[in-house]
């Protein structure tokens, strides 16, 4: 696939999630899920994230709340890492987690804090 939206999406996806992560996902795609990977790259990342109306940082803030509210913790971790890549500070991330806890519920907050602490420990360990 080589549409303009796909190429813009691929660049955005790599900028937020890291080139290694994205390349690994695309390389592991098979005939069954390759169309899904292409759709995610073109639609979510090309149409959504590559739109200049919001910064990547702002989109990260929105996604953390939405994904937590949906209870999709594996995906939340990926976007938490992306939020760090997009420049959110630890203080800002803590405030986002407080908002998640208030509006999505304490159990969602507990899960997000658990993941966040593990990710931050991994980053600190180098």
Helices and strands, with pairings:
Blueprint: H1 4-17, H2 19-27, H3 34-49, H4 56-70, H5 73-85, H6 90-104, H7 106-125
Helix pairs in contact: 1-2, 1-3, 4-5, 4-6, 5-7, 6-7
> Main sheet?
none
Determine the fraction of residues in helical runs and give it as a percent range: over 70%
Query: Can you count the helices?
Result: 7
Class from secondary-structure proportions: mainly alpha
Indicate the overall shape.
globular
Instruction: Give me the strand/helix succession.
Output: HHHHHHH
Q: In angstroms, what separates the terminal alpha carbons?
A: 36 Å
Rg value = 15 Å
Indicate the mean pLDDT: 96
Strand content: under 5%
Low-pLDDT ranges = none
Total strand segments: 0
Compact description:
The chain is mostly helical and 126 residues long.
Provide an overview of this structure:
By secondary structure, the protein is mainly alpha-helical. It has seven helices and no strands. The protein has helices at residues 4-17, 19-27, 34-49, 56-70, 73-85, 90-104, 106-125. Helix 1 crosses helix 2, helix 4 (56-70) runs antiparallel to helix 5 (73-85) and helix 5 (73-85) packs across helix 7 (106-125). The protein is globular, with a radius of gyration of 15 Å.
């Amino acid at each position: 696939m080589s549409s303009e939206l796909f190429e813009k999406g691929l660049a955005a996806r790599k900028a937020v999630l890291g080139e290694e992560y994205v390349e690994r996902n695309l390389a592991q795609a098979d005939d069954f899920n390759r169309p899904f990977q292409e759709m995610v790259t073109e639609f979510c990342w090309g149409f959504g994230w590559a739109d200049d109306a919001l910064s990547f940082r702002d989109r990260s803030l929105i996604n953390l709340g939405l994904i937590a509210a949906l209870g999709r913790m594996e995906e939340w971790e990926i976007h938490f890492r992306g939020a760090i890549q997009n420049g959110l500070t630890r203080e800002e991330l803590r405030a986002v987690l407080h908002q998640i806890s208030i509006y999505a519920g304490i159990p969602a907050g507990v899960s997000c804090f658990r993941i966040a602490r593990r990710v931050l420990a991994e980053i600190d360990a180098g």
